[in-house]
Amino acid sequence: MELSFSRSNEPIDQIINQLVEESGGIHHPAVIKEMILATLKIGQDVDYLADLKLINRTLREMRYTAKVFGPYRHRKKVTIFGSARTEETDEMYKKCVNFSSILAENNYMVITGGGPGIMQAGNEGAGSENSFAVNIRLPFEQKPNPVMYRNPRLVTYKYFFNRKVAFVKEADAIVVFPGGFGTLDEAMEVFTLIQTGKTSPKPLILMDDQDGYWERFFDFVKESLLVKGFISGEDFSLFTVTRDEHEALQVIKTFYNIYHSLRFIENRLVIRLQKMLTDKQIATLTEEFPGLIKDGDQIRSCEAFPEEIDEPDLAHLPRISLLFDHHHYGLLMAFINRINSFWSTPETGPLTTPDA
Questions:
Q1: In the chain, what's the furthest Cα-to-Cα distance?
Q2: What is the Cα–Cα distance from 33 to 194, expressed in whole angstroms?
Q3: pLDDT for 355
Q4: In degrees rounded to 5, what are phi and psi of residue 48?
Q5: Residue-averaged pLDDT of the chain
Q6: Are residues 96 and 222 in the same domain?
Q7: CA 37 distance to own-chain centroid
Q8: Which residue segment(s) compose the domain that 88 sits in?
Q9: What does the DSSP 8-state code read for residue 70?
Q10: Are 107 and 244 contained in the same domain?
Q11: CA distances in angstroms from 62 to 77, 132, 166, listed in the order given
Q12: Considering 29, 62, 195, 291, which has the largest number of Cβ atoms within 10 A of its Cβ?
């Protein structure tokens, strides 16, 4: 029979229901039933074995990723990218060890690729108990570093795309040390995901060396991308360049000073906050960021929407909402920074970014 997501599939629906009930302990059964139906449809639609193996392996890897990260959902995590070829005697290796140690002291967990070089430095500084490693099978370079070998928070992937999902989805901030093609690929992916709204806003910090690895990149962005109109000035809000580990920590802490998280409900952007904004502060945001607000709407305080019932632990947080113009995710980062600046302190401080 031809299976469908939009109409009854009896008697298959009945068999799926029974399967879910007999299995027991199934969370969100409606979603699981749809996944089972999707799997059956894949079996009907796809006859090429290599494609089926790819889909199967992808699902298995993502299931295990969710299982490993799930117990730590309420601890903030920082993904660290950088070269696998950085030697332990290198200045940037030592800087990464120190930075990840500072993160752990401030109750952050660290996510790395689990290999040598900067990845090992990140795990070493944070310690195995505060570390995740999302490793990739390669014919060279990439095997679990000694810190993460046999660690229960080590996940090894066959596919880069699954690994990249874990790097970004699970992170509350991302810090990129100098590196080669792989590091640049990971950094550019994050730029794109934040710029297009395909991942939640989060600090992206480029940790520079004494030779100005990221300064030269910044010059290229200004002189080649901005001047030619390939990006806009607001995109400079997407990232911060620094050589200082403590400034990098301050950037992360500042970003979550008042801002908590966001969610789109139909066409409205809902921003959850640690503290309610005053009417004067909302008026200031409206005046300073008119480009964010679509169709003559206005920023308004609100409570949790009925659609947020699936996140009951966030229901108590104050919120603001607005009709959002999806062309301006760079401006959204500046908007969040402005919210945080209303209660900046000497410890968190205002966010600083390179002057475009």
A1: 67
A2: 32
A3: 40
A4: -90, 115
A5: 93
A6: yes
A7: 29
A8: 75-255
A9: G
A10: yes
A11: 18, 15, 8
A12: 195
Q: Is the full-model pTM beyond 0.85?
A: yes
Output the CA–CA distances (angstroms, integers) from residue 350 to 81, 142, 164, 283, in the order listed.
25, 38, 30, 20
Same domain, 134 and 186: yes
Name the residue among 201, 261, 263, 272 with its Cα closest to residue 237: 201
What is the domain count for the chain? 3
Q: Round the CA-based radius of gyration of the chain to a whole number and report it.
A: 22
Half-sphere exposure of 34 (CA within 13 A, CB side): 7
Same domain membership, residue 307 and residue 207: no
pLDDT, tens digit, for every residue of 313-325? 999 999 999 999 9
Amino acid of residue 186: E
**Helices (runs of H) and strands (runs of E) counted in the chain:** 11, 11
Q: Which residues of the chain have pLDDT under 50?
A: 346-356
Measured in degrees and rounded to the nearest 5, phi and psi for residue 65 equal: -60, -50
The one-letter code for the residue type at 218 is F
Cβ proximity of 215 and 241 under 8 Å: yes
